[in-house]
Design goal:
This protein is an all-beta fold. The chain is built from 1 helix and 67 strands. The strands form 17 sheets. Strands 51, 52, 53, 54, 55, 56, 57 and 58 form an 8-stranded antiparallel β-sheet that branches. Strands 25, 26, 27, 28, 29, 30 and 31 form a 7-stranded antiparallel β-sheet that branches. Strand 35 (550-558) and strand 36 (566-573) form a beta hairpin. The longest helix has 4 residues, at 98-101. The protein is flat and about 130 Å long.
Length: 991
């Protein structure tokens, strides 16, 4: 049932929006969020305002469909209450539309604004709108509407933009997200997004600038959504922050945002960053509105938590803000969001949500979120943080994802949802894997038995069933799709692991003491002859349930049991019932962690010490790790001991019941090796030697692969298979099963012979600048995809783009070059000064050992075909392409290249002669080869009368051999050295 009734209807008349009288209605239960949670109306970008004894929250209106990844926002509305705690709100669904108030604006794009009461008592609504007739690169502008009442009708206060890329002074940012603070007759406006924040003061008329706009700094991770307010003489600026990373205090994923804040002693700054107050919400965007109402501070924000919600279907929530006034300046405490999220107790076979996730590509690229793998959320049109992915621009041939449970689980199936933006076989972007498999751990990784299939579709879950196995760890090994030279990344939206289903699950007898509300965390589940302790989620036990001796019924859900809920009878006993008790309790020690091989653990180990007494009472449990001091915990049924540090450890434990009876001591040996081995590879004479060490369990083996070949056990130095450049990847594996993150070395190409054709792949590429999502290695990866992904491009897009850039190749020796060809890439038209455009021009330069010299040639700038350049032969070890960017007169577009080839034409570096001669009436053939190369060369002389190999002939030196003919005459013929052929004439040695 919808609890909030739409109380105000919007009427459009004479270009103005008029609202009808409103009546309060209950929006939700007290202390429940979002304010309107039934999915009938999605609201975003809250901006609270106090008017007398009423609190208004002005919002945008999200109207996107469930599979639309765009902000469809055509109007603004508001909620109103006299007390947020009651859940009573009046909803104004449609207070203002851009095109109905601002004659210069287009419909739509009704993004985040703020209403303030001006010095004249009227209400001013500062909103971003799209300027219809603007010629600026970005058409967003900030308009100001005015009204005598907080609900309208609204009229244009200025007749044009207050702020745009042209007004009141030029800027190049996106002009949205205004926030306003009024101090007497001074008006301060902050605005901006994408890490750019501006500030400008206005006069009391709310529209006349004072001074010029200023850039604002000091806000760590600032992204967008500023909110300016004052408390007790200190100015606060809250904002949506995004300094993403695995150790970030804000967010691990760069599509998410936290709410951070800074303080200042003046409304114009300078600002000092103070930390975060709201962790990332369920929508990718976040937007704060903070103020005091009736003596309590509140924060309004939005989430995707309403029914049918999503990143573009958000809903406004509100929670209390608490302060730490012992700090100077006072600190905003971390916001406690309501309602507290409860575990899902719906019976289902999936057990992935209870697993710890590890992945092969730690740290995960910041556009993705590893938590998405097992959050049980699959969106119709996901954004990158709705999935785990591996795209970095340099993608390896294989990746894996792994689940670990604290206790053995019986599993028999999998459902996985792949995501892609490129088809298989392209070697670009993100594609479904070429193939994959599921493995489980039983001391080593084994393929699951009798899998049904491993489908690789990207529309819906891909189902695999297999014979049931019992394990604590399972992983999916994904072989990336390839075009033969490069690999696509892989991405998974959700991976469910399905538990085997027992015929029934029966709850054991449960006994608790008076006042004890915790029930056992596991129950026994039998699969044939095997019984496992499987986690159970119980419904909350109330204090009334356990207030006195007796019994009550508890309900819960067993992890992975899909047939229904579990019901148990719980007996409540008095803790003082110890008379005549002489039976000691028992104690069991159960380890959990990442199980390795040969009895080792590969992580910190948690040992659960569980005691049991025949009377059913709680116990005192004493534990000790190695020689540390003993620790006793009173009135418990179990306690956890954490064992850390590589090496061998011993945990001992005893339990004492209420009557004072001690158990016999129990001990458990724990072996931990959580450190991967360390290997080092060295290259000499085009051979790779690898050594590895492991301080704890010892090295089991070293594995290597050449290029995209299979992993092979290392037995000795690795030799290049041919004269080309090769990448050798290697890793160490210790006896505990820890596998080192693979390392790579490059065997350089053999340049001792003459070089012809494209020599770019054997060069080392560098550039003046490379954007983070592009790759300088894309310049010479010898690939020319029709629709390159960003990782298959070298590019320079950034916030500041210079007029010139350069790319460069270096070779290990001078090479005789005769030409080059280069293909540009673009996503913007010329003359915009934005995006990536074809350059105005470029030129090649060669290095002569002291300076760069231009190469005269004709240079094209096509982005659809290679621009070919030929020139008189030049011998050099460095070649540079200097590029002049296209611009609009003020700013410059970035440049990008998909491939840059350079061509060599070298002749044989051997001068070969052959001459027949006579001695004592017998003929012989004298063959000479002079090494005109710059490096030593092995020389093989070949004739019709034999052949001879001369190793490492020095530059300038010669190899000579006289081949006996064993006859008095020699017919004409040919001889050769390393394939270079020379003729010789006939000769007779007769009288």
């Amino acid at each position: 049932m919808r609890l909030l009734r739409t109380a105000v209807a919007g009427l459009v008349a004479a270009g103005l929006l008029v609202t009808a009288p409103a009546a309060p209605a209950r929006a939700a239960e007290p202390n429940s969020n979002p304010i309107l949670a039934d999915g009938s109306y999605y609201s975003a970008d809250p901006a609270p305002l106090v008017v007398g004894d009423e609190l208004y929250i002005y919002t945008g209106h999200d109207e996107a469909g469930p599979a639309v990844n765009d902000f469809i926002m055509n109007e603004w509305g508001a909620f109103k209450t006299t007390d947020p705690a009651t859940g009573e709100w009046t909803h104004y669904p449609s207070l203002m539309r851009p095109e109905n108030v601002f004659s210069w604006a287009t419909p739509g794009r009704a993004y985040a604004g703020q209403v303030v009461q001006g010095p004249d008592g009227r209400y001013y609504w500062y909103v971003p709108v799209s300027e219809r007739d603007s010629t600026a690169a970005n058409k967003f502008a900030i308009g100001v509407a005015v009204s005598a009442t907080p609900t309208g009708p609204w009229t244009d206060h200025i007749g044009g933009p207050l702020i745009s890329q042209r007004t009141p002074t030029a800027n190049t940012i996106e002009n949205i997200d205004p926030t306003i603070l009024i101090e007497g007759r001074r008006v301060f406006v902050y605005w901006g997004t994408f890490g750019q924040l501006r500030m400008l003061e206005f006069q009391a008329d709310m529209k006349t600038p004072v001074g010029t706009q200023q850039s604002v700094s000091g806000l760590t991770g600032y992204f967008e959504a500023p909110w300016l307010f004052k408390r007790n003489g200190t100015y606060y600026l809250a904002y949506a922050g995004n300094n993403a990373g695995p150790t970030s205090a804000c967010t691990p994923a760069n599509y998410h945002a936290c709410i951070a804040y800074a303080t200042a002693s003046s409304p114009t700054g300078p600002w000092t960053y103070r930390g975060t107050v709201l962790t990332p919400v369920s929508s990718t965007t976040s937007h704060p509105g903070i103020l005091e109402f009736n003596g309590q501070w509140y924060i309004a924000y939005h989430t995707a938590d309403a029914a049918g919600g999503g990143h573009f279907r958000r809903s406004v929530a509100i929670d209390k803000v608490e302060w730490d006034d012992t700090q100077s300046p006072p600190r905003i405490k971390q916001v406690v969001r309501t309602p507290v999220k409860q575990a899902d107790r719906t019976p289902r076979a999936n057990i992935a949500q209870a697993a710890k996730v590890t992945v092969s590509n730690e740290p995960v690229p910041t556009q993705y979120w590893v938590k998405a793998l097992n959050d049980e959320i699959v969106r119709a049109n996901p954004l990158p943080p709705d999935m785990w992915g591996t795209w970095t621009g340099s993608n390896p041939p294989q990746q894996w994802i792994q689940y670990t449970w604290d206790q053995p689980m019986r599993i028999t199936g999998s459902q996985i949802e792949f995501w892609n933006d490129q088809p298989q076989g392209t070697g670009a972007g993100v594609a479904a894997p070429a193939k994959w498999r599921i493995q489980y751990w039983d001391g080593q990784w084994r393929d699951v038995p009798n899998p049904s299939a491993y489908p690789t579709g990207t529309q819906g879950f891909q189902d695999t069933t297999f014979d049931a196995v019992t394990t604590t760890q399972v992983r999916a090994v994904l072989d990336a799709s390839t075009n033969g030279s490069t690999y696509s990344a892989v991405a998974v939206e959700e991976w469910k692991v399905l538990a085997a289903q027992p015929q029934t699950v029966t709850a054991p007898a449960i006994t608790v003491e008076v006042g004890e509300t915790d029930l056992p965390g596991t129950v026994p589940v039998t699969f044939g002859s095997e019984t496992l302790r499987v986690p159970v989620l119980w419904d909350p036990v109330t204090a009334a349930d356990v207030a006195a001796p007796g019994t009550f019924t508890a309900g819960g859900s067993v992890l992975g049991y899909a047939a229904g809920r579990l019901t148990a009878t719980v007996t409540v006993i008095s803790p003082g019932d110890t008379e005549g008790d002489q039976t000691p309790p028992s104690v069991v020690l159960t380890p959990s962690g990442s199980a390795g091989a040969a009895g080792w653990f590969r992580s910190t180990v948690r040992v659960r010490v569980t005691g049991a007494d025949d009377r059913g009472g709680r116990l005192a449990i004493t534990t000790r790790v190695d020689d540390t001091a003993a620790t006793t915990v009173e009135s418990v049924r179990s306690t956890d001991v954490t064992v850390t540090g590589d090496g061998h450890h011993t945990v001992t434990a005893t339990a004492t019941d209420r009557a004072g009876n001690p158990s016999s001591p129990q001990a458990l040996d724990i072996a931990i090796d959580a450190t991967t081995p360390a290997s080092t590879g060295t290259v000499a004479d085009r051979r790779v030697t690898v050594v590895a060490a492991d301080a704890t369990s010892g090295v089991d083996r070293i594995e290597y692969t050449i290029g995209a070949g299979p992993w092979t056990t290392y037995t000795g130095p690795i030799t290049a298979p041919d004269a080309a450049k090769h990448t050798v990847t290697f890793r160490g594996v210790d006896r505990a099963g820890n596998t080192e993150t693979a390392k790579s070395v490059v065997i350089p190409a053999d340049l001792s012979g003459p070089l012809t054709g494209n020599v770019a792949p054997i060069a080392v590429p560098t550039a003046s600048y490379t954007a983070g999502w592009n790759s300088v290695a894309a310049l010479n990866d010898d690939a020319d995809p029709a629709a390159p992904a960003q990782g298959q491009l070298w590019g320079t897009w950034s916030g500041t783009r210079p007029a010139t850039q350069w790319v460069q190749y270096d070779w290990t020796r001078p090479i005789r070059l005769t030409g080059a060809e280069l293909k540009f890439w673009r996503d913007s038209d010329p003359g915009t000064g934005d995006g990536v455009a074809a350059p105005d021009g470029w030129k090649l330069q060669h290095w002569d050992g002291e300076a760069w010299h231009d190469i005269a040639a004709t240079y094209g700038t096509s982005t659809t075909a290679f621009n070919t350049v030929t020139f008189d032969p030049i011998t050099t070890s460095r070649l540079r392409a200097t590029i002049t960017a296209d611009g609009n007169g003020t700013t410059y577009s970035a440049v990008a290249i998909s491939e840059w080839r350079v061509f060599a034409a070298e002749t044989a570096a051997l001068a070969v002669t052959a001459q027949p001669r006579c001695i004592a009436g017998k003929a012989y053939l004298a063959v000479t080869a002079r090494n005109d190369d710059r490096v030593p060369r092995d020389v093989e002389l070949v004739s019709a009368y034999g052949k001879k190999v001369f190793p490492a002939v020095a530059p300038g030196a010669s190899a000579y051999q006289s081949f006996p003919v064993r006859a008095a005459s020699v017919p004409s013929g040919t001889a050769s050295a390393n394939g270079t052929v020379t003729d010789y004439p006939a000769l007779s040695c007769g009288a």
